[in-house]
């Protein structure tokens, strides 16, 4: 694979992980706890993020 494309794939995967962590931090910011609604949203974010990362691994 083109090393520049491989580098961009690694970058995209890192950004996806950072996005997931940022969402977790944001969920805690308003009251210091994660509500059931926020937990449900975080689970969806996690699933989508993992799917994206796995799809990039397949390239």
What do these coordinates show?
There is one protein chain. The chain contains 2 helices and no strands. The chain has helices spanning 3-29, 36-57. It is elongated, with a radius of gyration of 14 Å. The chain starts with a helix and ends with a helix.
Q: What is the averaged pLDDT score?
A: 97
Helix and strand run = HH
Q: How many beta strands in the DSSP annotation?
A: 0
Number of domains: 1
Strand content: under 5%
What topology does this entry show?
Elements: H1 3-29, H2 36-57
Task: Give me some keywords for this one.
single chain, 59 residues, mainly alpha, 0% strand, elongated
Task: Give a brief description.
The chain has 59 residues and is mostly helical. Helix content is 83%, strand content 0%.
